[in-house]
Design a protein that fits this description.
0% strand; mainly alpha
Length: 65
């Protein structure tokens, strides 16, 4: 397993939560929600790429087409 990915996801999570908190304190809750949504999408894209690599490896190991 790639430990870098875990640290990237944790870093993105911390950054997004701080930005969201600052925006909510400034009275801009809509932008805070958008930042949270963008962070979630970024993390999901990273995880989907990793799952795609996993399926490719499984297909090559078992000889599926």
């Amino acid at each position: 397993m790639n430990v870098d990915l875990i640290f990237k996801v944790a870093g993105i999570g911390i950054l997004i939560s701080v930005l969201s908190l600052v925006l909510k304190q400034a009275g801009k809750e809509e932008q805070g929600q958008m930042i949270t949504l963008v962070g979630l999408i970024i993390v999901l894209i990273m995880v989907i790429q990793l799952i795609s690599q996993l399926f490719t490896i499984v297909k090559s190991v078992f000889g599926f087409f």
